[in-house]
Design a protein that fits this description.
single chain; MetI-like fold
Length: 322
Amino acid sequence: MLRFALKRAVAAVLVLFAISVLVFLIFFATPGADPAARIAGRNASQETLQQVRESFGFDKPLPVQYALMMRHLFIDRDLTSFVNRGVEVIPQIKQAIPITLSLVIGAAIIWMFFGILMGVAATAGRGSAVDPLIMIIGVIGVSLPVYWLGEVVNLMTQSRLHDSFFSWVPPLGYAPLSSGVWNWASHLIMPWMTLAVLYAGIYARVLRSEMVGAMNEEYVRMARAKGISERRVLWRHAFRTSLIAIVSLFGLDFGALIGGAALLSEVVFGLQGVGKLTYDSLQNFDLPVILGCVMYAAFFVVLANFLVDLVYALLDPRVRHV
């Protein structure tokens, strides 16, 4: 198991290195993408551009530029924005991380709970009206765009019904956990529920499909022949086997959302998370912030895949020899 983990860790580091090189080449070495022009501003003279290139090391060979950029980002941690001069990149990302983590972790707990509950209930209720009813609810959840559902939720909770049923819902935005658990959670309950609606439906359908397939396997038939109860067969055999697909799906979704894929939810509910920071930096073509956000997102996606591989190896020992 240790050897397997070390192999996956080395592969993760190599992937992060490859991503850093690719992002650097795209934004700093693509013909026509002159970082010096972004810093110097419009109508800058050639003398000014040359001074900027020398000051930031843009006149050096590409490998040297890459090394300098990575040193400023990861070692010195003093990489600054090209648009907001003097504003460092790392503090901006650090300020956005707790917001995105709070949003995604809370939503993940909700969607995993209801996704598993709905998937197991649909499997147990095969042949009755429960199964299609749960699947229809799941399809509806998957079909609702997050930005549209978020706007409807805001319309109800912030305007139409705010003075009656939802008077406890605070204004849009984020409150840190240090301000109190209830104040923090009350700002995030609606974003949590909105984001969880989409994923709960997906996980319910995936789990139901996996469990139905497992229920028809030979080892499940053998378990039934031994007189094991249907409930135990459902949980002990079908559910446990189906967890591999759920773990894989959860790892990819969670890593992507932490890395900024929760952008629409952050925008709709006024949360200044990593997704919103990445979007704003792309709008301004702020290369250092883009680089920092992409590396942050890549780290969490690679970390999520690494952890999924470890869980795979624990659930199925055959994976360790692959």
